[in-house]
């Protein structure tokens, strides 16, 4: 979760009131943060804020925290309003950037008075949004420039790798290729564009370079100081909605410092757009839903008041709340998200806990007992149980397994992974659809251990199911992987045969072609005419992708179809 430093004095200047350190511990909760540390430096008190929500980048700076607290305490109510006037500035986007870094959105904020703490917060917000929300600049990268040093119109264009400019922190000109090799940020983020035929460049009408997105700003225009009064903001990325959200977060944070927001016209080859777009978003929720799930005796008027303290505009109509909320938020996806805001405004510490009165006795879930019985059975075959993460990534589930999304479950995994919109790390960006890649990952990390290695896992796979409210279903599966020099399809089949015998099932194997397995050594496991799993010898190219030098045989199958077995 994002952590960042804020000055107590700066926060109180933005809120408009002073508080004790003890009071701040509770106030941070309104902004979905915890006070992680307190220290004094040069006579000033500083806090380390630990944000607990990766979907609220608007709360990752002093400006966002202070704004949230002003509303939560009732100093202001309803929807925040930010005026936006046209700047008359245009940015032209090069068609050649379509497959390189296609989207750039822009804004100008004028009339700023920036001290060192305001500058620190601005830089911190840029970095935190790009790091977490922007997936280390892959999805979103942000630049802020001294607008008074720029002559519009501005061009976001594809540049030859031999073009030159002075990158931030350097004194001499360097080619774009040299920046990727020699500059710290080039070495860190160069992989995002290194293999592209051109590199993105943002320049003004005089050819003066502003930045090389998503790598580094120019030393000439990209250094913002306390003397800077007007700034030009550049956000680039691959998803227009994410880029717009990041822009909205930054401009409204600067507006909290007294800046005046000015829009920019962005001209693409096939459309035009004016940014930022601060049009409020809309949602609707039933009042009975809020009353029932909070467990609080709240009147309609009290719910309205609590929501207005969380920056909603509220209209009560026929037992429902029609809501408008700020454009810098993108986390309202379900009624429970609104419910959470009601509880935050009410105060979790104000809720009296009650012991539930249940007229039933607890007992173990029968299917969980079945899973435990499967585990005991596998251990009886001399297999070692492993527990891997449900979270994974597209490369592990598809790329390393020589697969493309598509096909049915037993010739390929399902068509699409359930992916996380704003993951903390690209490594943990999706929920797995099959377990064998997780076992191969485990084997790849234990190549230094003795062989044979014979492992299994009883775990969950998450599949897309449009018929359900969540559009997903979590299925229990068992997977086995055997690794040693003489492993064969037959060894894996012997274990499968014994499992089916113990569970009282007969099964058939149907030969299939599957890219992850050696041709002619893969089969579909069929029970009562329905496919429930897959078995085979892992393809050498797959093993090479995982860095495994030993042959591997594996099988995997759903457990729910076998649940009626007399396992106890």
UniProtKB/TrEMBL annotation:
Superkingdom assignment: Archaea
EC number: 6.1.1.20
Keyword set includes tRNA-binding: no
GO BP of this protein: phenylalanyl-tRNA aminoacylation
Primary localization: cytoplasm
Keyword annotations: Aminoacyl-tRNA synthetase, ATP-binding, Cytoplasm, Ligase, Magnesium, Metal-binding, Nucleotide-binding, Protein biosynthesis
Domain B5: 278-353
Compartments where found: Cytoplasm
InterPro entries hit by this protein: aa-tRNA-synth_II/BPL/LPL, B3/B4_tRNA-bd, DNA-bd_dom_put_sf, Phe-tRNA-ligase_IIc_bsu, Phe-tRNA-synth_IIc_bsu_arc_euk, Phe-tRNA_synthase-like_B3/B4, Phe_tRNA_ligase_beta2_arc, PheRS_beta_core
Catalytic activities: tRNA(Phe) + L-phenylalanine + ATP = L-phenylalanyl-tRNA(Phe) + AMP + diphosphate + H(+)
Binding residues annotated for Mg(2+), in chain numbering: 331, 337, 340-341
Cofactor(s) this protein cannot do without: Mg(2+)
Enzyme superclass (EC): ligase
Cited Pfam families: B3_4, B5, tRNA_synthFbeta
GO MF annotations in UniProt: ATP binding; magnesium ion binding; phenylalanine-tRNA ligase activity; RNA binding
Gene3D superfamilies: 3.30.56.10, Bira Bifunctional Protein, Domain 2 (3.30.930.10), Phenylalanyl-trna Synthetase, Chain B, domain 3 (3.50.40.10)
Gene Ontology annotations for the cellular component aspect, listed alphabetically: phenylalanine-tRNA ligase complex
Subunit structure: Tetramer of two alpha and two beta subunits.
NCBIfam families per UniProt: pheT_arch
Family designation: Belongs to the phenylalanyl-tRNA synthetase beta subunit family. Type 2 subfamily.
Protein name: Phenylalanine--tRNA ligase beta subunit
Organism: Thermococcus celericrescens
Gene, per the UniProt record: pheT
């Amino acid at each position: 979760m994002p952590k960042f430093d804020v000055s107590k004095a700066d926060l109180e200047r933005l809120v408009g009131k002073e508080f004790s350190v003890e009071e701040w511990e509770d106030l941070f909760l309104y902004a979905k943060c915890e006070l992680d540390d307190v220290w004094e430096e040069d006579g000033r008190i500083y806090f380390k804020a630990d944000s607990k929500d990766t979907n609220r980048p608007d709360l990752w700076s002093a400006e966002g925290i202070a704004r949230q607290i002003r509303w939560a305490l009732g100093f202001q109510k309803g929807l925040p309003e930010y005026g936006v006037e046209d700047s008359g500035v245009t940015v032209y986007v090069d068609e050649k950037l379509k497959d390189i870094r296609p989207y750039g959105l822009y804004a100008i904020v004028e009339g700023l008075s920036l001290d060192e703490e305001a500058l620190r917060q601005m830089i911190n917000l840029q970095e935190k949004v790009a790091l977490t929300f922007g997936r280390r600049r892959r999805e979103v990268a942000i630049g802020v420039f001294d607008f008074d040093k720029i002559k519009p119109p501005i061009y976001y264009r594809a540049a030859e790798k031999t073009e030159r400019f002075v990158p931030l922190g350097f004194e001499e000109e360097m080619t774009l290729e040299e920046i990727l090799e020699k500059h710290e940020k080039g070495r860190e983020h160069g992989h995002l564009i290194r293999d592209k035929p051109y590199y993105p460049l943002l320049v003004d009408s005089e050819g003066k370079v502003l930045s090389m997105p998503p790598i580094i700003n120019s030393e000439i225009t990209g250094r913002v100081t306390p003397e800077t009064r007007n700034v030009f903001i550049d956000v680039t990325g691959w998803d227009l909605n994410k880029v717009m959200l990041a822009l909205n977060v930054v401009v409204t944070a600067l507006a909290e410092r007294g800046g005046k927001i000015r829009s920019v016209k962005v001209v693409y080859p096939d459309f035009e757009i004016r940014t930022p777009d601060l049009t409020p978003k809309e949602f609707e929720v039933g009042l009975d839903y809020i009353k029932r799930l909070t467990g609080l005796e709240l009147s309609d008027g009290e719910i309205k008041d609590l929501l207005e303290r969380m920056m909603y505009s509220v209209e009560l109509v026929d037992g429902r709340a029609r809501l408008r909320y700020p454009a810098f938020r993108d986390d309202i996806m379900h009624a429970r998200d609104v419910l959470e805001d009601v509880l935050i405004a009410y105060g979790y510490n104000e809720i009296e806990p009650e012991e539930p009165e249940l007229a039933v006795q607890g007992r173990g879930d029968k299917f969980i007992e079945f899973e435990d019985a499967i585990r005991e059975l596998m251990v009886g075959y001399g297999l070692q149980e492993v527990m891997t993460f449900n979270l994974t990534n597209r490369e592990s589930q598809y790329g390393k397994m020589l697969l493309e999304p598509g096909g049915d479950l037993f010739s390929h995994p399902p068509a699409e992974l359930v992916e996380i919109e704003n993951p903390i790390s690209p490594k943990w960006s999706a929920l797995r659809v099959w377990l064998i890649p997780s076992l191969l990952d485990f084997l790849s990390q234990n190549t230094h251990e003795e062989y044979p290695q014979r492992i299994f896992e009883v775990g969950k796979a998450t599949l897309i199911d449009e018929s359900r409210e969540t559009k997903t279903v979590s299925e229990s599966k068992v997977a086995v992987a055997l690794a040693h020099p003489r492993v064969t399809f037959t060894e894996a089949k012997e274990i499968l045969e014994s499992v089916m015998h113990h569970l009282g099932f007969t099964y058939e194997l149907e030969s299939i072609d599957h890219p992850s397995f050696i041709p002619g050594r893969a089969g579909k496991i069929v029970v009562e005419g329905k496919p429930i799993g897959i078995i085979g010898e892992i393809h050498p190219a797959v093993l090479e992708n995982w860095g495994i030098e030993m042959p591997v045989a594996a099988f995997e199958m759903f457990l729910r179809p076998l649940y009626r077995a007399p396992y106890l």
